Amino acid sequence: MTRPEGEREIIARIRRTAGNCRDLVVGIGDDCAVYKTALNLVSLVTTDTMVEGVHFDLAWHPPVALGRKAASVNISDIAAMGGLPRFALLSLALTPACESRWREAFLAGFLAVLSEHGVVLIGGDTVQSGHEIVLSVTVLGEMAEAELLTRKTARPGDVVLVSGFLGEAAAGLALCRMGLAQEAVWHPLVSAHLDPVPQVALGRVLATSGLVHAMQDLSDGLATDLAHICAESGVGAVVTAEKIPLSPLLCRAAETCGQSPLDWALAGGEDYQLLFTAGEQQLAGLVAMVSKELGCELYPVGRLVEGRGVFLEEAGQGREISYQGYEHFR
Amino acid sequence: MTRPEGEREIIARIRRTAGNCRDLVVGIGDDCAVYKTALNLVSLVTTDTMVEGVHFDLAWHPPVALGRKAASVNISDIAAMGGLPRFALLSLALTPACESRWREAFLAGFLAVLSEHGVVLIGGDTVQSGHEIVLSVTVLGEMAEAELLTRKTARPGDVVLVSGFLGEAAAGLALCRMGLAQEAVWHPLVSAHLDPVPQVALGRVLATSGLVHAMQDLSDGLATDLAHICAESGVGAVVTAEKIPLSPLLCRAAETCGQSPLDWALAGGEDYQLLFTAGEQQLAGLVAMVSKELGCELYPVGRLVEGRGVFLEEAGQGREISYQGYEHFR
Description:
The structure is a homodimer. Chain A is α+β, with helices and mostly antiparallel strands and about 325 residues long. Chain A folds into two domains: about 5-145, CATH 3.30.1330.10; about 160-330, Phosphoribosyl-aminoimidazole Synthetase, Chain A, domain 2 (Alpha-Beta Complex), CATH 3.90.650.10. Chain A is about 35% helix and about 25% strand. Chain A contains eleven helices and 13 strands. The first copy, chain A, has helices at about 5-15, 65-80, 100-115, 170-175, 185-195, 200-210, 220-235, 250-255, 260-265, 285-295, 325-330, and strands spanning about 25, 35, 40-50, 85-95, 120-130, 135-145, 160, 210-215, 235-240, 275-280, 300-305, 310-315, 315-320. In chain A, a hairpin with a 4-residue loop joins strand 2 and strand 3. The relative contact order of chain A is 0.16. Chains A and B meet through helix 1, strand 3, strand 4, helix 3 and strand 5 of A and helix 1, strand 3, strand 4, helix 3 and strand 5 of B.
């Protein structure tokens, strides 16, 4: 979800006023904060808060899937820098409506995702809330400092890649809102919204490859997330509309919902695929290595250029799309 | 604040189901989780969530004090194990009522406490909430593994000590509720509730002294917090009512509010003083050292015994007070 102006302003203010120190490698403004621990090793830490009615709707989000998602979106931030997730903290502000069965299902989902990624729950907090469930998760990870992939180190001339189909989660959310979530045909899209999969293994392979220049995860949509990399690296980007990977099912859902599949891909957010850049000469080797090691495909969607801003090329026309959220594309 | 049964049940369930792993030194159930980083060094991590209407009331909690408290209660958890706080993450779920001036004051208070303790804000999240402000803070600390003070290592025969007057924060809250917070005479008590002071320097001195067996901070009241140490260490405790340090101002406020000062001290919570145990033979040395290094007094309030439970001795009578919250003493 693209942040309202007020939230971006708070983050910018915090970033200006927050301190700095010797052991801090990456502070506010990337997927994780990173600090040195042992020689050549860094710790990564990320936190994400989900509010009922803003980030999820209990009308269609089953507690087990919500528990999975609360873990996955944080683990995705570790994956986004190439790290190995290790430990999690879970803070629950629960309303009186969260009965014992709901809590157990939520916790089962949360712990299942941790277990899938070898992450251990080591602490947290449980408090009452009057009106809204608020879930705050913190995940700690680790990696070699030399392999760290930030948003700051993209270079003009780089190819921009994504790790999978985009817009799937936005389509799933639209289908949930239209009351179509129960139709079996839409399951992959609905699942992309309710239970996204963090790309930990791919993040590790990309980080250890030495072939990637900058990386983050796609949480706010390509238009916003690529603008982050561009702003942090001091480069511009040109994305080619025809190259953005859209699944046939997404296009079918877009027809059903009366939406544009491309708008979902650019501005929908919450896909939790990886977005990264690499030198053109390393591209073939990178694609071949990932295909061999993980059997998955990578999708080049554009290139980085000198300058600033994110431009979309569509049918020979170009337009600026930096930071544009869903509302801008309608 | 003493947790309702439902919250304790969730924590117990999480503790049973959460995993364990090689590098984890202390998991769920102490002030912080602790894991090994470098040789002989451990990282500490703690998180605390505060909900509007449950943990604070905007009617009397100014935003700058609330920002300070959100930082202090987490830093106190690091102090409670003897650690050095290093980094903080701040997650804000803010309602539309939180205007720019409110946010700035909150943030100024939060950052001021971090700065007082050399802690650096390295990340967080800012989201919208419909009805309630929810503040989740995570603080990371570090220390030598050998100096770590947990709740598990108290021994029968130990003296139980606290680091300052108890019940002050509970009295301050009662005065706020009665609309008396503006009267200058009550300022120290009101301040104890609105802006508690984490005992970081004392925690470090106690941890490095090698004379302390077990420690935690007083967040839920002596009756509950000492019961935690007893349960984790497999011992019992006898507290002597007459030895509990009560300030003259507290006794005066108790008269004004029609409350018992001892009940506030035992069950009020949120004092954020340190509660710790030490061998009787080391007591004089410990008290002298703390007096010399920090100029502050320590108060022996009881002793640990074989067995289980926390007993209060008052005027020759004993009664079990383990885990008793405010409601049990009225």
